[in-house]
Each structure stands twice: as structure tokens, then as C-alpha cells.
């Protein structure tokens, strides 16, 4: 695969992360759980008014790195973006316990409860959406 397909996967990952962030307000309302990955990332760095921009930039950068990992893994084995995103979700979700106990902004808006049943449902939906968008954009 060429540099062009690698770049496409990186851009697809960043775009998928932005789509995820755009969907957060909807699932937060539907599931009545105030958990936001953008808040988790942004408020880990700053609690100024800039946290949403910082959090979105960090989330998009994480998505880009994930897109690159997907590209490299896809070169070696047949893996879908959705399966890879769901695997990452299941592997990392338990870290929500640490976030609930140790995050510097725990309890603030967007970080009310990061670990629990509703948060698990949110993270499941978000990772599925991310994987679907990544796969569609990266794979064409």
C-alpha cells in the first residue's frame, strides 16, 4: 500500500474521531450520562475555556494514530475497522475506573461517570460509529 493509502487512513481516523465527538451530545442526552471523551482529554490538560478545542484536537490526533494503526494492521491481516475499534474499547474501558477516581477534573461536566453501564453503552456505540466511519473512509 502506498503513502497515499496511509495518508488516507490517517485522515479517515481523524475524521472518524470528529464524527464521534459530534455524536457525543446526542448519546449523552439519550443515555442520561454525562460522559465525554472530548472533556476527558481536554480537561486532563486544562480547565480553562479552551478545554473543548484542546480535547477535540487531542481526540482527532488519537483518531489519526488509530487510523495509521488500522492501515498497518490491515496490510498484515484481514481486519475490519469496526472489529479493531471494538477490541480497543473492550481492552481500555476498565481504565474508566481510574478516570473516575484520579482524573484531575473528575465530577465536572463531561466527567460525571466514565465507568458504569451507561458509560459502557456510550463507549460501545461511539467505538462502533468510529470504526464504521473509519472503515468507510479508509477503505473507500
Structure description:
- The radius of gyration is 15 Å and the shape is globular.
- It has 6 helices and no strands.
- 32% of the residues are buried.
- The protein has 140 residues and is mostly helical.
- It has helices at residues 3-30, 37-45, 51-76, 81-92, 96-102, 117-139.
- The longest helix is centred in the first third of the chain and has 28 residues, at 3-30.
- The mean pLDDT is 95.
- It has one domain.
Number of spatially distinct domains: 1
**Range of strand content:** under 5%
Tell me roughly what share of residues is in helical segments. over 70%
**SSE string, helices as H and strands as E:** HHHHHH
Distance between the first and last residues' Cα? 14 Å
Strand runs, count: 0
Q: Overall 3D geometry?
A: globular
Structural class: mainly alpha
- The tally of helices reads 6
Q: Could you report the average pLDDT, rounded to the nearest whole number?
A: 95
Amino acid at each position: 500500500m502506498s503513502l497515499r493509502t496511509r495518508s488516507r487512513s490517517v485522515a479517515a481516523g481523524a475524521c472518524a474521531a470528529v464524527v464521534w465527538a459530534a455524536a457525543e451530545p446526542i448519546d449523552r442526552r439519550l443515555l442520561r450520562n454525562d460522559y465525554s471523551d472530548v472533556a476527558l482529554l481536554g480537561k486532563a490538560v486544562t480547565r480553562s475555556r479552551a478545554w473543548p478545542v484542546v480535547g477535540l484536537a487531542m481526540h482527532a490526533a488519537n483518531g489519526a494514530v488509530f487510523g495509521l494503526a488500522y492501515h498497518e494492521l490491515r496490510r498484515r491481516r484481514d481486519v475490519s475497522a469496526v472489529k479493531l475499534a471494538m477490541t480497543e474499547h473492550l481492552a481500555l474501558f476498565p481504565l474508566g475506573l481510574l478516570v473516575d477516581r484520579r482524573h484531575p477534573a473528575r465530577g465536572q461536566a463531561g466527567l460525571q461517570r466514565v465507568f458504569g453501564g451507561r458509560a459502557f453503552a456510550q463507549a460501545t456505540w461511539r467505538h462502533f460509529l468510529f470504526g464504521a466511519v473509519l472503515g468507510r473512509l479508509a477503505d473507500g
